Protein: Lrp/AsnC family leucine-responsive transcriptional regulator
Organism: Desulfovibrio intestinalis
Amino acid sequence: MKNKIDEIDERIIYCLRKNGRITMKELGDMVHLSGQAAKNRVEKLEDIGVLQKYTINIDCPVFGFKIHALIRLQMEKSNLGNYEKKLKNDRYRMIHCYQVTGEQCYVFDMAFLEIEDLHSFLKDIEEVGRCEVNLVLKNMQDFED
């Protein structure tokens, strides 16, 4: 099958997750391929939609955002559009917003300058729905090492 992912593709994906700016020669060395063969594999993974974009992760504390929280919000779908302007503020940053299964639920991945800013945000969104907050203690992204 043309779109099948093999062990080499999985190693390429792992390496790119660690460092999306790696050269194809470096990537090839890491997965025991030539630079051109690694490039061909990456292009195939892009073509079939496995690799869709290359991003960066920003260390929020470096920018002064000390509090990292995941906020699950239950509200009517129609209310989110009216509330989007309130989601932009100098005291906090929306990292990701997900619509998830359930009773019209959303999950906001957010960073706040201070705990008081989180409290203020929660007070603001009380009017549109019920929320549950989880503070992020540690990033486990690199647990595979």
